[in-house]
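Quick start: what a row looks like.
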Amino acid sequence: MLETLDAIIATAAVALGLSLIVQAVQQIMKHWFDLKSNYMRFQLLAMFSSPQPPEKRQGLRTLKPITRQMGDADDRARSIVEQIEAAVKSFGYRDLELLEKVSIDDMKRIAASLPMFGKAKEKLKEVEKEIEIWFEITKRAFQDLYERKMKLWSFIISGVVVIVLNANLLEIYREFSTNKTVRDAAVAMAEKFVAVPRDSLLVIDRTAARETTYVVSKPDSLIVRDIQASLDEIRQVASSNTFQVFRWTKARLNPFVSDRWLVVWIRAILGWLAMTLLVSLGAPFWYDFLKTVMGIKERMKK
């Protein structure tokens, strides 16, 4: 029974290790491509591109879609968003993600401070009305879009990492079930993972939490340091002895071109897909899972 539990712990440790790699890659992507800021810009352009108010459609009051292609945004919307972005940076924040935390009244004050509305009070009233109607919807749309995109990116990155490391779930579990040395090494890796405080090991995306606290501004020097730490994390996890058995080698490549290549490919694809699904659950899930299972193991020993 304990051997089976150890095999489960070892497999979960690999899933956590791969999840940490995916997490690090995601953080690098977010910093390099300003994904969160770009998604907020997308929604602001949609909001200020004169969306129509609710209309009656077949007896039901419905809202016309707020989200549209950025290329369809008019010049007015682009000018407003550019000046809002400049204002946000003047407050000491790096990009537009600050706006997911502000209230409607705060957004109105930001709009009132924009140079383009210094004398155009009538236009400012129009914009304030749009903020009144659309800003909360825009924030929800931003949060939902960002969350969906991050889940999609997580799945794609997980698949790439799994295939690059040849982390076939079927083969991994079989290896841990039959090879005590490799299993013990993975269990030791799991113990190291859970010995580290959760908040220092994991980077948790708070978007879904709908928090009301303000984000903290980060200078570029700290962002570069975060990226370097993420790269170091990738190297440490990927170079772990436990991962050596899952890497591509000539012996593991040969079956893919053997007489049984079809069966080998089907098993490999199923194993990769299964591991990708597990890894895409995220590092927080696997950290908590390991904590729970290892607690059960300790109670069973007693």
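That is the whole record. The mean pLDDT is 77. The chain has one domain: 2-301.
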